[in-house]
Design a protein that fits this description.
491 residues, mainly alpha, 2 domains, 76% helix, transmembrane helix, transmembrane, ABC-2 type transport system permease protein, DUF5687
């Protein structure tokens, strides 16, 4: 039956209307993955030399064992962002005499065919066979089993979290936050040492190979959790019941006071929560709230306003940029209907701006803990928040008028370039350059406060003249309406 599933998947691929495009994307991704495989293979073979250079007075095996757990923590973070869920069109099989265990088993088995599962072979195995096997002999078998078992555990844990997040986006945010806190507890707050914990386990695995049964049991348990979760949710009536209850949770009485604009915002929120790609943009805007830790922990940037202008713009405006650049592409599937409906396009734009303003305001509030690095940091964030709402929001909407590429909302965001074109590349230049064109002359004259004040004044002026700019954007859209709608019809 497994071979039948594979044949059906191949036939579905070759008979798809987008086969040519899919082949091109797969070839490109194959070449990219091949490049990374070769690069990591080189690193794997040189691992012992790299450790000797960086840790000249320490034992190679001790250092390596200390970094194994750190690697798997970052591996899990990467899987959560990039690993795709294994899929199968199960509906055609549910009314046939096909055992559900076979369908679920196929999905669970194909989940192992991820390029993330290759990294332990490429990075760790050369070192293991060059250093650990000669020194520890047969005990290295337990070490190898442990590494492979934890990789399998990460594989199924990431898949389980992503499946749960498809029903509730907070699952992803909370789990990612917990991982970030675990990493920060070591590298930022120094409450414990992940390196020492890693060596404590993997060092003892070399002495007592039977300990390898622990990660094997964890991997088997996570596989079983995925298996039974899929089996419980493999019934169409279960899926329909969940969707019905989900709809009732997206009514927002608070938006009633905004009238037609509030209705548009409510529909936009439903679109975000119910579809993978826009939900990924929203989740990433939440993840980007931690972006400041990358810069502000660095002493070279701690007392400089230059990186704070950049970071503040992205933390308070990431949702505007990531979601707004595909403003119409999200509605591509029903854009023709939208154009002939009674919805005023001016209200349509105002609803988008209201949504952007709300999310950016929440982002500004959530970044106030950066006052730990000084209240000036929060002040710069507030200035960039005003700049985003008064300037960047119009830049993004202007370029959105030039994007006529449709997006399939059901597809994930990782390795997905639907809707992406030259417009997105061009958008980055004014977004990056505009604030520094204002701020830099003042900064060079050591008038940083004056530069921030001018940026705030320009932002406030942009907010005050919002109706004027919306009118210009509406006029620009109508000039390009037929080009956009024609582009959305091309599947």
């Amino acid at each position: 039956m497994i071979s039948t599933f594979l044949r059906h998947e191949l036939k579905a691929f070759w008979r798809s209307k987008n086969t040519g495009k899919s082949i091109g994307v797969r070839i490109f991704m194959g070449l990219l993955i091949l490049y990374f495989l070769i690069s990591f293979l080189v690193v794997g073979f040189l691992m012992d030399k790299i450790i000797e250079d960086r840790f000249p007075n320490e034992d190679l095996t001790v250092v390596f064992c200390g970094f194994v757990l750190i690697y798997f923590l970052f591996d899990l973070l990467s899987r959560l962002q990039l690993q795709e869920l294994p899929t199968l069109r199960v509906q055609p099989y549910l009314h046939l005499p096909v055992r559900r265990n076979l369908i679920v088993g196929y999905l669970a088995f194909t989940a192992l065919f991820s390029f993330f599962n290759l990294w332990p072979f490429i990075l760790a195995f050369p070192f293991i066979f060059k250093v650990i096997v000669p020194n520890w002999g047969g005990a290295a078998v337990g070490f190898i089993i442990s590494v492979l078992a934890i990789s399998v555990f990460n594989n199924y844990l990431a898949i389980y979290i992503k499946r749960k997040a498809n029903l509730n986006g907070w699952v992803f945010i909370i789990f990612t936050g917990v991982l970030a806190l675990l990493i920060a507890g070591d590298f930022s707050w120094h409450l414990y040492s992940i390196r020492n914990i890693s060596y404590l386990f993997f060092g003892n695995v070399l002495k007592h190979p039977a300990l390898a049964l622990i990660p094997v049991a964890l991997a088997a348990g996570m596989f079983a959790l995925n298996f039974f979760y899929l089996k419980r949710n493999l019934y169409l009536e279960e899926l329909s019941r969940k969707k019905a209850s989900y709809k009732t949770s997206t009514e927002y009485p608070i938006l009633d006071r905004f009238g037609a604009i509030g209705d548009q915002v409510a529909n936009e929120i439903k679109l975000i929560l119910r579809n993978k790609r826009p939900r990924s943009a929203f989740i990433m805007s939440a993840v980007f709230l931690c972006y400041g830790l990358v810069f502000y922990k660095n002493p070279a940037f701690a007392h400089s306003d230059w990186p704070k202008v950049f970071v503040g713009m992205f933390m308070t405006g990431f949702f505007i940029i990531s979601y707004g650049q595909f403003l119409y592409s999200w509605q591509a599937a029903h854009f023709d209907g939208l154009m002939v409906s009674k919805v005023s396009f001016t209200d349509f734009l105002k609803a988008k701006i209201l949504l952007f303003t709300t999310v950016s305001t929440v982002a500004l509030v959530l970044t106030t803990p950066y006052a730990y690095f000084g209240w000036r940091t929060v002040l710069i964030h507030a200035v960039m928040y005003i700049w985003n709402l008064g300037i960047n929001i119009y830049i993004v909407l202007f370029f959105a008028n030039r994007n006529a590429r449709r997006i399939d909302l059901s597809k994930g965001a990782s390795f997905n370039w639907e809707g992406v074109g030259a417009t997105q590349m061009l958008l980055s230049f004014p977004l990056m350059a505009a604030p520094y064109l204002i701020y830099t002359p003042f900064a060079l004259l050591h008038l940083q406060n004056a530069g921030l004040a001018v940026m705030a004044i320009i932002g406030v002026a942009g907010i005050a003249s919002r109706n004027f700019w919306i009118g210009k954007l509406v006029q620009d859209f109508y000039n390009r309406k037929y080009t956009i709608t024609e582009g959305f019809r091309n599947k």
